C-alpha cells in the first residue's frame, strides 16, 4: 500500500510544479466565468421552471418526458373502469 502511494508522488510533484503557471491563466478565466454567470442569472431564473422536464428528458428520452400539457400546465388522463352489471 505504501508502494502505491510512493508511485503517485512523482506525478503529483510535476502537477504541483505547474500550479503557479496555471494560476496566471486560471484566475482570470474564473473571474470572467463568474461575471458571465451573473449576467446570465435572469436567463437561468426563467429556465428554472423547466429543469425537471430537462432532467427527465435526459434520463428517459424526449418522448416520455413530454407528458400531457394544456394551457394550465400538466394534466393527467384518468379513466374510471366500472363493472356495471346489467
Radius of gyration: 27 Å
Main β-sheet description: 2 strands, antiparallel
Percent helix range = 55-70%
Question: Which parts are unreliable, with pLDDT below 50 for 5 consecutive residues or more?
Answer: none
What's the tally of helices? Answer: 4
Q: What is the strand content? A: under 5%
Structural class: mainly alpha
**Euclidean distance between termini CA atoms:** 79 Å
Number of strands: 2
> Element order, helices and strands?
HHHHEE
Whole-number mean pLDDT: 80
Q: Write down the overall geometry.
A: elongated
* Widest beta sheet: strand line-up: 1-2
Care to describe what's here?
There is one protein chain. The chain is mainly alpha-helical. It is built from four helices and two strands, in the order ααααββ. Strands 1-2 form a two-stranded antiparallel ribbon. The radius of gyration is 27 Å and the shape is elongated. It starts with a helix and ends in a 12-residue tail after the last strand. The model has no long low-confidence stretch (mean pLDDT 80).
Amino acid at each position: 500500500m505504501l508502494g502505491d502511494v510512493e508511485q503517485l508522488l512523482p506525478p503529483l510533484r510535476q502537477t504541483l510544479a505547474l500550479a503557479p503557471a496555471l494560476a496566471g491563466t486560471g484566475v482570470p478565466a474564473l473571474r470572467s466565468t463568474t461575471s458571465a454567470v451573473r449576467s446570465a442569472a435572469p436567463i437561468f431564473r426563467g429556465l428554472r421552471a423547466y429543469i425537471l422536464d430537462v432532467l427527465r428528458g435526459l434520463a428517459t428520452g424526449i418522448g416520455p418526458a413530454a407528458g400531457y400539457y394544456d394551457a394550465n400546465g400538466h394534466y393527467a388522463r384518468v379513466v374510471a373502469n366500472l363493472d356495471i352489471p346489467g
